[in-house]
Design goal:
With 394 residues, this protein is mostly helical. The chain is built from 15 helices and 3 strands. The chain has a 3-stranded antiparallel beta sheet. Strand 2 and strand 3 form a beta hairpin. Helix 6 packs parallel to helix 8 and helix 9 crosses helix 10. The radius of gyration is 21 Å and the shape is globular.
């Protein structure tokens, strides 16, 4: 344990949260995949091992991400944006279509599907943090600062929204929060919101998935009038939650996993409440709230604007996504395809989520070293062969 702790830096609470969520994820996914494994004629252990590989790979990515000085991500964000926008175009035209939504592309050779919006979230947040930091001196300038920021937000929003409206809305909300923290004027933020509203109306009423979006909203607003087939997922989720009680049915004893279409991803929170009860559900909420609180401490302690904006954007994104998933499970929002970070079964989503955790830990590591320079000096003596070149944004 001492060896592990000596190799890791950053907020210890966040490391503990990652471990807790990973273990809980393995338990939930193992329980939830029994039905789909039976239908496909494979053992549940096959899904568990695949998920375990992604969890271990995610933790490895998080470890290496936290070792890299966070200021390097300013340069990486430009590369990510250059790759992301064409990739989103490609996904809309040539991506794998499921339920009339083209969200995935298949990675050759390994034959693994990849949801491009996961990369887009990371790219846009890091790019906004970089741009807002670099433009602080003339942040009110429309041509030099505002137009590049608004353009990047609106382009990524519309490209994601055409296939995945819920993810696009959450990312847009995080972007607005970053603009507020980055001292963009209220008038300019209002213009961005107006532009986003116009794009939203176009997607909902004119986009290729307009029928799906309108149907989900109507089902949520008027459940008593809804088609039973369209309300099936939310109804089964409510049954799972209602039968969970205070302490739940126990791990592996879920009944609704046999009826819920996606108990291992979109509705994993309902399965957790069914098996672990109200105690488990509240416990999971508390874990995400502690994560947000620790991130806010990192943001306020960060000496550099880029680090503060980076940690704020990524932590808001992860927390909003978590509460959006849980809200859908308990019936507080229309059905979406948003996974629960580090808990839902997934492939590339787990990897990109882990990278986001790693970047936050990188900012936390810098805060730690600024507070305790002797620890940094001691670390450099123990690693004579490791030369870390600190990149500057300015």
């Amino acid at each position: 344990m001492n060896l592990i702790l000596s190799k890791t830096r950053g907020d210890r609470w966040i490391w503990l949260i990652v471990i807790l969520l990973s273990v809980w994820s393995l338990l939930a996914v193992y329980s939830a995949t029994g039905t789909i494994a039976y239908k496909k004629g494979v053992g549940t252990e096959a899904y568990l091992m695949k998920h375990l590989i992604f969890i271990v790979g995610g933790i490895a990515l998080m470890y290496f991400s936290h070792l890299l000085d966070y200021r390097y991500y300013a340069g990486i964000s430009k590369i990510l944006m250059v790759i992301t926008i064409p990739l989103l175009f490609y996904t809309l035209i040539f991506g794998n279509t499921v339920n009339s939504a083209s969200r995935w592309v298949t990675i050759p050779i390994i034959n693994q599907t990849f949801q491009t919006s996961d990369m887009a979230k990371l790219a846009l947040i890091t790019f906004l943090a970089r741009t807002l930091t670099r433009k602080q001196e003339n942040i009110k300038d429309v041509k030099d600062a505002f137009l590049p920021i608004m353009g990047s937000v609106c382009v990524v929003f519309i490209l994601i929204a055409l296939a995945n409206l819920s993810t696009a809305l959450m990312l847009f909300g995080v972007s607005i929060l970053l603009l507020i923290i980055g001292r963009i004027s209220i008038k300019q933020i209002g213009i961005v919101c107006l532009g986003g509203l116009v794009l939203l109306m176009c997607v909902v009423f004119l986009g290729p998935r307009r029928k799906t979006y309108i149907s989900r909203i109507e089902t949520y607003m008027y459940p008593e009038k809804a088609d039973p087939d369209k309300a099936f997922q939310s109804n089964q989720s409510k049954i799972a939650i209602a039968t969970g009680g205070v302490f739940g049915k126990g791990p592996g004893n879920s009944i609704q996993r046999n009826f819920l279409p996606h108990p291992y991803s979109d509705f994993v929170f309902a399965l957790i409440i069914e098996e672990y009860g109200l105690v488990g559900g509240v416990g999971l909420i508390v874990i995400y709230l502690i994560f947000l609180y620790r991130c806010i401490l990192i943001v306020t302690a960060s000496p550099k604007a880029f680090g503060a904006l980076l940690a704020a954007g990524l932590s808001f994104s992860l927390t909003i996504q978590a509460f959006a998933n849980m809200a859908v499970a308990v019936g507080l929002g229309p059905v979406t395809g948003v996974p629960l970070p580090l808990v839902s079964m997934g492939g590339t989503s787990i990897l990109f989520t882990s990278v986001a955790f790693g970047i936050i830990l990188s900012v936390s590591r810098d805060v730690e070293e600024k507070k305790n320079p002797l620890a940094k000096e001691s670390e450099s003596k123990n690693k004579k062969d490791d030369k870390i070149i600190v990149g500057e944004i300015e």
